[in-house]
Amino acid sequence: MNENLYLALRAAYPEDLSQTAIETADGALLSYTWQDLDRGTAMIANLLGSLELPEGSRVLVQTEKSVEALMLYLAVLRAGLVYVPLNNAYQASELEYFIGDAEPGVVVCASKHFGWVSKIAFRAGTHHVFTLDDDRTGSLLQRAAHHSDQQQPAVRAAGDLATIIYTSGTTGRSKGAMLSHGNLLNNARVLQMLWGWRSPSEGGDVLIHALPLFHVHGLFVAVHGALLNGSKMIWFSKFDPRAVIARLSEATVFMGVPTLYVRLLTEPSFNAEACRTMRLFISGSAPLLAETFRQFSERTGHTILERYGMSETVMLTSNPYAESTTAAPLKRIAGTVGFALPGVSVRISAADGTACKVGEIGAIEVRGPSIFQGYWRMPEKTAEEFTADGWFKTGDVGQLDAFGRLTLVGRSKDLIITGGYNVYPAEVEGYLNDLPGVDESAVIGVPHPDFGEAVVAVLVARAGASVDGPACVAALKQRIAGFKVPKQVVVVDELPRNAMGKVQKALLREQHRALFQA
Q1: Weakest mean pLDDT among 115-119, 202-206, 304-308
Q2: What's the DSSP call for residue 46?
Q3: Alpha carbons within 13 A on the beta-carbon side of 103
Q4: What is the pLDDT of residues 317-330, one digit of tens each?
Q5: pLDDT tens readout for residues 135-186
Q6: β pairing state of 253-256 and 206-209
Q7: Do the Cβ atoms of 51 and 14 come closer than 8 Å?
Q8: C-alpha–C-alpha distance, residues 236 and 24, integer Å
Q9: Taking the alpha carbons of 190, 193, 194, 196 in that order, is the dihedral positive or negative?
Q10: Helices (H), 177-257
Q11: Which of 277, 194, 193, 192 is closest to 226 using CA atoms?
């Protein structure tokens, strides 16, 4: 039995393939039919097949968002290869690590980066580097155009590897979370049922897709949801609140990180009338402020549905779709992320490993069919992240109420989530400590009205030296992704430490928590 994820997605396409599957809403306004998706992915899959790559080869992708980039993802699944998406903000030093670790058989990048990316790839032993741009150009499409638009998807079992999603580590070394065809399909099917996706016979759903394609939210939650339901997508390459509002009347579902909701609320035209056709607004990837939750409801009459997931697990919990304002278990409550998905188990553990009581705060541990297979080439790290009885330790801290509703309290690994992107302080600190004049650094996250959290660096200068904050920021922008670069640098005489000599980051966060308050 072929359990290739692509086959399940393709089986959901409507019978009439001439219908519009994706309509771009910015740049060149284009329409793609389901037939276009089928033919385009077949040609790219045939190109990949012609390269005669070894079984399980990785295809590492760092491109701008486009429908063709989505086709590339689907083609990798069709070909039975392993998809490795990367944030397009990553710089050369970061790409060098990812390519060296993943050892991809194929790398696909934007044409403007081909020079330096190809050097890194060829030096690491990758033989095939293609380009793909957001204007339907690039060597990948040129080469694929010479291949057949018919292709038989590769046979894959549910446990076979489909993708590697890199997620930062506290040591600064990124870890590749391995997700299988079965992991992704199970999660997509559960969410399709749980969130009430409507079939065409029921009027159909239309998704506004304004998220990036390089992480779980935009690719595995949003895209899989629409494709598995045969639903049209209105496609934004970048989020523009006014442009999104203008298209809301043609849609029924919107998914976003909290930053997007904050920006929608700054627009006077965003109101109940603009949302009159909408069925569901979903938020995730970062904490949604209670004030944003409240303002959204008052302005639109809709209650945002929050959910919780990770790169290693896809989605784990969700607030109820069938909302009730009276029945406590069916309420969507600000600051909570809802209940365990069907098939998923969530427990809260104390420091000694015993189970916490209702309302007690402890470590969140999970198990279920969407939990990843482990970290790529890190068996020791994988073993560390699971309990003796097989539960995955998320690294998050939370509590369960009497109904089983989960509330996130904090993160045990100092993770900063800014605008939906993960930043681990240790990685940024490593770059800061290498800058001239910097003796030591501490990177923290503080509240930010737009991004949820902002990255802030607290620096100590070396004896006899001085440190210029803006110069540090400028230097980092050349070395790491922009979302990791501190939004503010504070220079102090010394960092606060406890009796063991450890930097007291909690104290630093408290000292600087008002930096971005109006």
Answers
A1: 202-206
A2: H
A3: 7
A4: 999 998 766 666 78
A5: 999 999 999 999 999 999 999 999 999 999 998 544 457 899 999 999 999 9
A6: parallel
A7: no
A8: 6
A9: positive
A10: 181-194, 216, 224-228, 241-247
A11: 192
